[in-house]
Amino acid sequence: MTTHLTHWGAFEAVSDGRRLTEVRPWSGDPEPMPLIENVASAQHHPTRIDRPHIRRGWLEHGPGAPGRGDEPFVPVSWDRAFELLSGELRRVYDEFGAESVYGGSYGWASAGRFHHAQSQVHRFLNCLGGYVRHVNSYSMGTSTVLLPHILGDLYWMLGNFTAKSVITEHTELIVAFGGLSPKNAAVTPGGVSRHHTRGWLAEARANGCRVVSVTPLRDDTPAEAGAEWLASRPGSDAALMLALAQVLDAEGLADNDFLARYTVGYDRFAAYLRGESDGVVKDPRWAEAITGVPADRIRALAHEMAAARTLVTVSWSLQRARYGEQPVWLGVVLAAMLGQIGLPGGGFGHGYGSTGSVGEPTRRLGVPRLAQGVNPVETFIPVARISDMLLNPGASYDYNGQRLVYPDIRLVYWCGGNPFHHHQDLARLRRAFARPDTIVVHDAFWTASARHADIVLPSTMTIERDDYGAGENDRMFFPMPALTRPHGEARDDYAIFAELSESLGVGKEFTEGRTAEEWLRDLYEQWRADLSARGTTMPSFDEFWAGEGITLPVAEPGQVVFADFRADPDAHPLTTPTGRIEIFSETIDGFGYADCPGHPVWLEPEEWLGGAAAQRFPLQLIANQPRTKLHSQLDVGAHSQSVKVAGREPVRLHPDEASARGLRDGDVVRLFNDRGSCLAGLVVDDAVRPGIAQLSTGAWYDPDPSDPTFCRHGNPNVLTADRPSSTLSQGSTGQLCLVQLEAFTGELPDLAVSAAPETLPVCD
Ligand code: PGD
To answer: Which residues have CB under 6 Å of ligand 1?
Structure first.
C-alpha cells in the first residue's frame, strides 16, 4: 500500500502499474470521504486526453480563426505541438508584449506541491517576460478585499482563527450564518489528512454547545450538531444580522466598553440601525419581512447571544453573492457588539464550514515549494472579471479604490483550472473566449475549457507522477510517489514547460538544469537544511520518501484569534487603517461606492425572492459546492456519477414546490432564466426550504450545439449572473440567482461531454 494525497483526503492504494487495483482511506482519517473513489474510476475514462490536440480551424487558418468550442480537434505529436505553441508564444510576445498574455490561470489544480500547476505556468510565463495575472479567488474574493479594511488580513486569519478544541471547551452558542458544512470542510487546498467536522460538532454538543444554523438548506450543518435550523431566505442574512444588532443596541445588550476601546465608527452605524439616517428602524419586524425568520425568534436569539459565550461564524458562500461584503462585515460587527472578540470560544469566525483548515492548530512550518520567479507586468484583474476583460479591452473600471484598465489579451494560457466550470454566465464566457487569437489549455481531461481551447496538452494526474504534499495548515506532510505510469502520452506540466522553455531559449531559467526528481530532492533538502538551522530536525529525503508521511509541528495548539489585541490594543493593534475594528470605514466611505458604503447596510439584490424579478423566476437557485466531487474535478468518476439522475446533475426541491409543478423524484427537469437553461434530475427533499432549487456546481458544461445557453448536463453557471459582489471587491456572485423550473418534456438529449470530442486523423 502506498499513501497518496488529494485535496479531499489521503488514501492508500495498490497498483498494477497501469491502474489502481485497490484504494482505501488513509488509516489516520477518522471521517474519510467517499470522493476518493473518483480517482481510480476516472483515470482511464474516455474523457482523458491521451495526446496533444489542435483545434482544426486554428491548425488550418492560424491564430484568431473562428470556431472555438464548435470544431473537431486534430491529434498531433508532441514535437508538432511544441513547434506550433512555441512559434505562437514567440509571435505574441514579440508583436504584442507580455501585457497581451493572460496567464492568471485560476484554479485548484491538484494536490502535490511541486507539480502545482499554477506555480508551473507562472514560473514558465515569468521566464518569457511575464503575464497579466489575477488577484483574489472565487472562493473568498469578496472577503479578501473587505476584511483588511475592517479587521485584518484574511489569509493571516485563516491560519489563526480560534482552534476547534477551544470552541469545544468554551463556546456555548455558535450562530452559524451559512451553516457548518462537512462537505466543504472536507476540502483544503493541498489536502486534508484528518476529517473531523462531525466528531468535532458532536463533542462540542456533548459539552453543552448549541448551534443555530442560519441557512436555506438544513443539511448545511450535520445532524451531529443537533442544530436549530433557521431557514432564512437566501441572500437575506444582512437583514437578519442588522435586526440582531438593533436588538442588542436598543435593549442595552451591546458591550459599550468593548465598542469604545476596540472599535471605531459605532455611532454612525447605530444611527442607521435606529433609522436616524434613513427613517427605517432595522428591528426584527422589519427583518422578518425580508428574511422570513419570525421577529420573536430574532429578538430572542439576540438575547441568547448576549447571555452566552457566542461564536458568530459566517460561511464563505455568503460573500459569493451580490453585496457579499455586508454579511461578513455584519458578522464582525455583531461579534464586536457582543464584546467577545479575543475571548476563548467567542467572537468572529469565517469559514469553519468552508474549508478544512480553519480552526486547526496553527502550523509552524511551510513545505517545500518551487519559486515562481518575478512577474514584471503590473496589470492584473480581480479574478472574476475574466469575461469583462476579454470582451472590453481598453475599458476602465473601479476596484478597491483604484481605477484600472482592461488589457488587450491575445493569448490565454490555462493550466490547472476550469473556467467553464468556475465562471458565471457561461454563454457570455463563450463569447469572451472567442476573442483572443489563441487559447492554450493543459488538463488531464476534456473539460469544457479544454474543448474551448486551440492547443490542448494532456497533463498527468497526481497518481501518475512523483510529488509530495501537505494541505494548508494541515499537519501531515506526505511523500506521493507515482502509483501508475501516465495515461496515453500525458506528460507532467513541468516536463511540458521544460521542453517549451528550451525551444524558446529560456530552458536554463526554467529548469535550472534539474529534472523533476532532482527538484523534489533539492527543494526538500534545502527546506530541511533551513529548518535544521532553526533547530528543527527532519528526516533525510530518502527516509521521507520511503516513509508514510511526517507530522509537522504546530505553533500553538489552542489558539484564540485576536487575544493579543484584546489584551492590549495599543501594543497589538489590528492591521486596519485605525488599528481598531472598523464598524465605519473612512477608507471605504472615501471610495464613494453606492454598492458598498462606509458601514454595513442591507442592500436589496437584483435577484432575490423578495424582489420584482421573482415574479417571473420564483425560485432562488443555490449553486453551492457539490458533495460528490471537488468543483468539477473527476465528474466522470464513480462517486460523482452515482448520484446523477438520468445522467444529469441532481437538483433538490422542497416537496411543496415539486407537487405545485406536478413533479416527482427522478423526473428530468429544465431550469431556466433570461441568461440560459439547463437540464437536471429532480430529487425531492424537505431539507431544502420552499422557494429554493439547489443545484450544485461541477457538472461539466455540455452545451447544445445549436444553443450554447442550454446545458444538457446541469451546469448551474449557464444560469448565474456575471455581476460582481460590488465595485469594492469585484468578487464572484455564483452562489445565487433566480430561476424557474419545469418538467422537461422533449426527447432526452445525449450527453456529448461524457465522451472525448470529435477528433480528425492525426496530422504530423
Ligand atoms: P476545478 O474543477 O477544481 O475548478 O474552480 P476551479 O477552476 O478551481 O478545476 C481544476 C482543474 O484542474 C480541473 O479541470 C482538473 O482536471 C485540472 N487539474 C488537476 N490537476 C492538474 C494538473 O496537475 N495539471 C493540470 N494542467 N491540470 C490539472 C473552482 C471555483 O469555482 C471555486 S474555488 C469556487 S469557490 C467557486 N464556487 C462557485 C459557486 O459557489 N457557485 C458557482 N455558481 N460557481 C462557482 N465557481 C467557483
So the answer is: 107-110, 115, 117, 138-139, 320, 415-418, 421-422, 442-445, 447, 459, 493, 623-625, 630-633, 697, 716-717, 720, 734-735
Sequence-distant (6+) residues with CB within 8 A of 543 are: none
pLDDT value at residue 764: 74
Cell numbers placing 309: 459565550
CATH number of the domain within which 649 lies: 2.40.40.20
Q: Give the pLDDT confidence of 163-220 residue by residue, as tens digits.
A: 999 999 999 999 999 999 999 999 999 999 999 999 999 999 999 999 999 999 999 9
Query: Could you confirm whether 399 is annotated as catalytic?
Result: no
User: Could you write out the DSSP letters of every residue in 223-238?
Assistant: GGG--EEE-PPTT-HH
Which residue from 6, 108, 624 has its CB within 8 A of the most atoms of ligand 1, so it is best to mutate?
108
Note whether residue 201 is domain-resident: yes
Nearest-atom number in ligand 1 for the CA of 7 is 3
Q: Are residues 206 and 344 in the same domain?
A: yes
**428 and 352 share one domain:** no
Question: How close is the Cα of 361 to the center of ligand 1, in Å?
Answer: 27
Ligand 1 center to residue 410 CA distance, Å?
23
What CA–CA distance (Å, rounded) separates 156 from 358? 11
Domain containing residue 210: 162-256+308-358+560-584
Q: Are residues 645 and 720 in the same domain?
A: yes
Catalytic residue flag (residue 106): yes
Degrees (nearest 5) of the Cα angle 306, 310, 313? 125
> Do 497 and 405 have their domain in common?
yes
CATH number at residue 171: 3.40.228.10
Query: What total number of domains does the chain contain?
Result: 3
Ligand 1 binding pocket mutation candidate from 732, 737, 753 (most atoms within 8 A of CB) = 732
Predicted confidence band of residue 763 (pLDDT cuts 50, 70, 90): confident
Q: Is residue 763 part of a domain?
A: no
The last residue of one of the domains, among 517, 533, 551, is 517
The answer, as to whether pTM is greater than 0.85, is: yes
Q: How confident is the model at residue 464 (pLDDT cuts 50, 70, 90)?
A: very high
Contact at 8 Å (CB) between 743 and 669? yes
pLDDT 10s digits, 407-445:
999 999 999 999 999 999 999 999 999 999 999 999 999
Nearest 10 degrees: Cα torsion 220, 225, 229, 232: -40
| Element (DSSP H or E) covering residue 621 | strand 619-622
The three-state (H, E, C) secondary structure of 596-630, written as one string = CCCCCCCCCCCCCCCCHHHHCCCEEEECCCCCCCE
Report CA torsion sign: 431, 432, 435, 437: negative
CA pair distance 686, 684, nearest whole angstrom? 7
Q: What are phi and psi of 558, to 5 degrees?
A: -115, 55
16: three-class secondary structure by DSSP: coil
Catalytic residue among 26, 102, 106, 329: 106
Q: Are residues 568 and 498 in the same domain?
A: no
- 166 and 72, same structural domain? no
What pLDDT band is residue 556 in, cutting at 50, 70 and 90?
Answer: confident
In one-letter notation, the amino acid at residue 274 is: R
118 and 242 assigned to the same domain? no
Do residues 456 and 568 both lie within one domain? Answer: no
Q: Do the domain assignments include residue 706?
A: yes
